[in-house]
Known about the structure:
The protein has helices at residues 2-14, 16-34, 70-105, 109-122, 126-137, 141-164, 171-178, 183-219, 231-238, 247-274, 276-281. By secondary structure, it is mostly helical. It has one domain: MetI-like fold, CATH 1.10.3720. Helix 2 (16-34) crosses helix 10 (247-274) and helix 8 (183-219) runs parallel beside helix 9. The longest helix is centred in the last third of the chain and has 37 residues, at 183-219. The protein is elongated, with a radius of gyration of 22 Å. The two termini are 25 Å apart.
Amino acid sequence: MSIVMTSARDWFRRSPGLVAGACITVLFILMAMISLVWTPYDVTALDIGARLMPPDAAHWLGTNHLGRDVLSMIMVGARISILVALIAVGIGLIIGVPIGLAAAAMPGLIDDVVMRGSDLVFAFPALILAILITAVFGPSAVNAIIAIGVFNIPVFARLARGSALPIWKKHYVLSAMTAGKTRAEISFEHVLPNISHLLIVQGTIQFSLGILAEAGLSYVGLGAQPPMPSWGRMLAESQTMISFAPWLALFPGLAIFIFVLGLNLLGDGLRHRLDPRNDRAA
Length: 282
């Protein structure tokens, strides 16, 4: 037991940001999972008699202008934000990483096409591109996922390409080519495992950006639609009542801030822990 406690203390001492970020992230994920089966109140039910109640014993975070419990809405909003960001990051990984590996494995035309395509996507700010896509295809959580996922594809493609290029010059890769392995086999058997730590770190960063992007889209009415709660729409609806019901903006804003902070701490901690140079230095 003492060995386990000593190891835990050493882990926290060396990576306090990683531990704090992981705890915050797990807390929000648990909150979202609990909302699947239970919330203090029904988020779709109206209770005009309890409208704009400040935080009290019955409603810990108060109620909104329709009498809906703010805590329950934040719990369900966490579910929406995590779902949108997670699938969007998955789209970027599943599509972007193979594209980047292919560009690194076959320099020339394919590499040029991938890089110029990435430049075209990056020419538009991420939120503007997301607003454009959702405005064309209609506001919904699904279209928000597609919009954010489209921007993640070139992010992971460029990262995979840039980190894979030096791997192709390693002696073990040249030996694998001499042994008759195809470039596709080498990419997934030798190159991908050596860049996976970079992809994991970038995934946490894009996850936090996905949370912000979903909130931004919902704020302008292009994300999840009523009656499904969303942190961004909660902020939008509260802006005309902030002078007499500040809790309507305070708690969703804090939820976004704390969750994104936790994800950034997690990503930064993973970057330090997974970087092989830090192990050599230790």
